[in-house]
Amino acid sequence: MRFTGWQKCPLAFSGIRITVIDIAASPRAPLGIEGKAKIGKMLLNFTMNTKVSPSSDPTRSLSLRKRCAEKGVGIDQCIASSVVHEFGHVLGLSHEQNRPDDPSSELCHRNDPETVIFTGDIGQFVYHTWGNTKFTPYDPNSVMNYCRIPYYGNTKLSLMDQVAVKVYYGNIPGFSTPGGWNGLVGRGIRTMRIPKLMINNLPYNAVLTESGIDSNHDGKYDNVYTLTITYNPSVQSISPVTLVGSATKVGSVINIKPGSKISFPLFKYSSAGKVVRVGHASVIKRADGWWIFDSYKYFYDIH
Question: Which residue, 230, 227, 210, 290, is CA-closest to 258?
Fold first, then answer.
């Protein structure tokens, strides 16, 4: 996410347009691309003096400024935490307490309505508040959870917040398995795309590609891979990986010695174009030149 320019948005601007206003509906943000190019749908509040819209929660009859003050949180920190939360919505994160696997029945765990319609001087907008994918286990510490303790003034992303954002936006290694982990013959070749592989302090794009060989004639491809690398000095990734071992360059060819290893602290596993798991893994080069997965473990299944 990049914040560029704080001047008035041009009419043709197609990004997120921010309206700063102190009204009952503010702060409020659309989910993901629902706010793209919309004037008045992304609302931030830098004074927080207005009471929020009517609610069954008695604490929400106070302005955000007063609610923060009751918790000993200053106005600047109160604004900062609200901005972090609202931009979580812009990135596609919905309220954590709305999840059906939320274990609590506390007042703050009440479900938001699926849609909220706001009508005011700046127009009428429909906000969708429910997500459609459970990306991690229920997270009581998420910045998107109203029941987080402390909630007001807390700008720190939880570990699961960080994983979710990194997986979707961080250009991390991605394993694609058209035929499932066991690689059934006829269902496509499995690949691990590595956006940034550091070899001798130089950055490369790399791809591990399954052999496509069924040496046991059991209907499953052998779990061995080739590694293709391309030098790319401009590649960006928040989760670069480093070759541990020995590599020499002869002309434009990189020779990696057997026993060399690549570890992936974080990778996403996709099936049919959808991310379904998150985990970590490592591969090692055998003496016969093939690369094999010598370890892998999944953190989360995504539904």
Answer: 290
What's the token pair of residue 46?
């830098």
H-state helical runs in 19-97: 64-70, 75-90
Q: How far apart are the first and last CA of the chain?
A: 25
Q: Each residue of 203-255: pLDDT tens digit?
A: 999 999 988 887 887 777 778 999 999 999 998 887 789 999 999 988 888 99
| Mean pLDDT score of the chain | 83
27, 53 Cβ separation under 8 angstroms: no
In this prediction the pTM is 0.76
> Which helix (H) or strand (E) is 250 found in, with range?
strand 247-250
Q: Is residue 172 a contact partner of residue 239, using CB atoms and an 8 Å limit?
A: yes
Radius of gyration of the chain (CA): 24
Contact 195, 237 (CB under 8 A): yes
Q: Residue 127 in contact with residue 115, Cβ under 8 Å?
A: yes
Tokens 């570890």, residue located: 263
Distances (CA, A) of 90 to 79, 94, 166: 17, 9, 15
> Is residue 64 a contact partner of residue 46, using CB atoms and an 8 Å limit?
no
Q: Which two tokens stand for residue 302?
A: 């995504």
The residues, any chain, with a CB within 8 Å of residue 117's CB and separated by 6 or more, are 124, 125, 126, 127
pLDDT tens per residue, range 15-39: 888 989 898 888 988 888 888 888 8
Distance of alpha carbon 25 from alpha carbon 29, whole angstroms: 10
